[in-house]
Write a structure and sequence with these properties.
The protein is α/β, with parallel strands linked by helices. 37% of the residues lie in helices and 29% in strands.
């Protein structure tokens, strides 16, 4: 049985970890390197670091911060934010990132997925998708949710896979930060559509929500932020509970 992954997400602005609700009301919650070290020690399977204003502000994620993170943790980590060229991705991978996450730039220039996958392999490429429901459709956004597009979630996820993405990280903007549960029907549909892992993001509030998206939602990994940042659900306790419910996870 393939184990499910638990992935804390650290949204970074100016080197600090921040969190908001529905992509708004951003507040600072801690230091990126220190929090990464703590999650690694507690048994997180992977980490995701997203420079949430890099694309909006038109700058690049700082490779220096990535180097510091790599020196302080011993689990895989993904870095995203402001990656718009193959050179940007190369710089971060050289700095120690295990994977890169591309979102706005992938929608703007889809062949960026092909280029990174061709040079480094699909396992290095995570395509992140931020989408919200618009009637019966789920439409993708860019620039941290600030710009709407006509890209439809499922069609875009499939295209990203065909272009070489190794994983899809889908965040439901309707659920992000609400702690009311994940968009399980959408993850289940993505699982049925794709042959690559799907990471669920947006809405974790308790153990039940995470158990549901990993089982009923069929997600390969659950990503969360607030519940870990504020120590509402310690990772060891979460994994123990999931294991007791019959969900395969890596225990320390």
């Amino acid at each position: 049985m393939v184990t499910k992954r638990i992935i804390p997400c650290l949204d970074i602005r100016d080197g600090k970890v921040v969190k908001g609700i529905n992509f708004e009301g951003i507040k600072e919650v801690g230091d990126a390197v220190e929090m990464g070290r703590r999650y690694s020690a507690e048994g997180a399977d992977e980490l995701v670091f997203l420079d949430i204003t890099a694309t909006f502000e038109g700058r690049r994620t700082f490779a220096e911060l990535v180097e510091k993170i790599a020196l302080n943790i011993n689990i895989p980590f993904t870095v995203g934010g402001g990656i718009s060229t193959l050179e940007d991705a190369s710089r971060l991978l050289d700095a120690g990132a295990d994977k890169v996450s591309i979102n706005s730039s992938a929608i703007a220039t889809p062949d960026l997925i092909d280029k990174i996958a061709s040079k480094y392999g699909s396992q290095f490429v995570v395509v992140a998708i931020d989408a919200r429901s618009e009637g019966s459709r789920w439409l993708c956004t860019t620039h941290g949710g600030r710009k709407a597009t006509d890209k439809e979630l499922f069609a875009w996820a499939k295209e990203a896979e065909q272009r070489g993405a190794g994983e899809i990280l889908f965040t439901s903007m309707d659920h992000d930060g609400t702690k009311q549960g994940y968009a399980c029907p959408q993850y289940r549909e993505l699982n049925a559509l794709l042959g690559i892992p799907v990471i669920a993001s947006g809405g974790a509030g308790n153990v039940d929500h995470i158990a549901e998206v990993l089982s009923e939602g069929r997600a390969d990994a659950a990503l969360a932020a607030s519940i870990f940042h504020y120590n509402e659900i310690p990772i060891p306790a979460l994994k123990k509970e999931l294991s007791e419910r019959g969900i395969a996870v890596r225990l320390k």
